[in-house]
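Report of the visiting student (M.T.), summer placement. My assignment was to run the structure pipeline on a short list of targets and document each run. The first record concerns phosphoribosylglycinamide formyltransferase 1.
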Amino acid sequence: MTGPEESPCRILVMASGFGSNFQALIDAISTGQLRNSHIISLITNRRNAHAIVRADEAGIPWDYFNPISNGFLRKGETDEQKLAEGRQKYDAALAARILSTDKERPELIILAGWMHVFSGAFLEPIERARMRIINIHPALPREFDGAMAIERAFEEFKAGRLTRTGIMAHYVIDEVDRGAPIMIKEIEWEGEELEELKERMHFHEHELIVKATAKVAQEIVEGRERKPGDVPNP
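After the run finished, the structure tokens were exported:
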């Protein structure tokens, strides 16, 4: 048995789609591969996300919170100013929703296929609450930021301009995929077609998200009792 000071890191996962990275975390915790970690809940912004099914099967509570369904944006809105304002309001409300949790407040937020770019309206209050936010991205640092990263790398392979890509786990900041890397893995192109490359990349994503979560969760657990001015062991 572990004492209160060694209780597992409380993790909130945010996912928008199929949830395979979410499942990798669930499996790693259940098999003991990912220690000192406990997923307390899932948040999704898409009602039909398969991640919800995964949460139900694992007995993990989930919450659906969407900018249109919850009244922050009008469906089909095209006005850029209204879109920006709506997203800011949504981000602020989502942060408040997380911070107002009555039972267990998360210590670590993992974006596992979360299809929404956060603004400072979300990131700043979460940072003030000393919660860490990490993301997994299928590219190396400062290469292919944003959407369609694997497809863009594949085009470079086919054109003969590149022979490798990679995956990184990184902290989330208000610049897309530009936060400090936690772990990276280089992946050489083996001449396969796009779908085979995607499948191989996703396999390595599942490995990396577990390893990065283990690293950060351990740091959080060890840091709970650290006093201001203490220097962590190298």
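Residues 229-234 have pLDDT under 50 and may be disordered. The chain is about 40% helix and 20% strand. I thank the supervising group for their guidance throughout the placement.
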